[in-house]
Amino acid sequence: MIEGGEMACSRTRDDTRLCAPLLIISLTIFQVTKLRIRVATLLLLCCGLLSIASAQTPDDSRPLGRWNAAVFVGGGNGLNDRKDVHMVRAGGRIGRMLTREHKYGSFEVDAEVSPVDYTLWDRYKDVYGFSANPLVLKWNFPTHAGNKVAGFLLTQSGFIYSADKIPPGDTSNFNFTTGIGVGMHIFTRPGRAVTFDTRAVHLSNASIGNHNPGINASLQFSLGYTWFKR
User: Fold this and answer.
1) Are residues 196 and 222 in contact, defined by beta-carbon separation less than 8 angstroms?
2) In this structure, is the dihedral angle defined by the CA atoms of residues 177, 180, 182 and 187, taken in order, positive or negative?
3) Are 182 and 150 in contact (CB under 8 A)?
4) Where are the domains positioned within the chain?
5) 15-20 own/partner pairs: CB under 8 Å, 24+ apart
6) Largest alpha-carbon pair distance within the chain?
7) What is the average pLDDT value for the chain, to the nearest integer?
């Protein structure tokens, strides 16, 4: 009987020695888990506060956002020996800001498409055309997120394909256009602006046709509405 009792007591002590480390490990895991939960909760709370703060604070390094899109209508008139030529066009534009705002402004690249681009001639006929400026380089003057007006300079390079040859004669239906201009955005509310620009444009078929009289100079205006996206 004594031997059985001693064996039982020994077994109990062995179980106790085995259970103690397991209990310690379990408590440790429980404490670590609680700590992780608290840390995770704290991190989530911090991230949420930072997100709210960043959403409420404008990024003044990109006052004109990263992307913009616009619709516009425009027109103009030939100069010098082409005063009998008039232009009417309508289309859309998409732009991408390539740099942040610096001391002297920011750099942007745009692309324009005009499904309607009429060339009207006093002594010829009105010619329908489709035009595009796949490369419009724009320099935006320094501005800030709260400003009501933002000015810019631009240069354009593109083409126009017309239903008939322009200028009249043995010329070409396809002509290249280049130009420079100046304009401004007038903000009606944050991220929305009325956009106006003036351009001096040159038209030439680059000798694709047998003759290349071109339109050496024209003054064109456009008025549009622009959406800016940060």
Assistant:
1) yes
2) positive
3) no
4) 1-57, 67-229
5) none
6) 132
7) 83
* Domain covering 67-229: architecture: Beta Barrel (2.40)
**What is the rounded CA–CA span in Å between residue 21 and residue 15?**
11
Q: What is the pLDDT of residues 110-127, one digit of tens each?
A: 999 999 999 998 888 899
142-147 mean pLDDT: 84
Look up residue 126 and give its two tokens: 């009105």
d(CA 179, CA 160): 13
- The DSSP bridge pattern shows strands 106-121 and 129-140 to be antiparallel
Return all residues near 193 (Cβ < 8 A) that are at least 6 apart: 150, 185, 186, 187, 225, 226, 228
At 170-199, the pLDDT tens digits run 999 999 999 999 999 999 999 999 999 999
Two tokens, residue 18:
């085995």
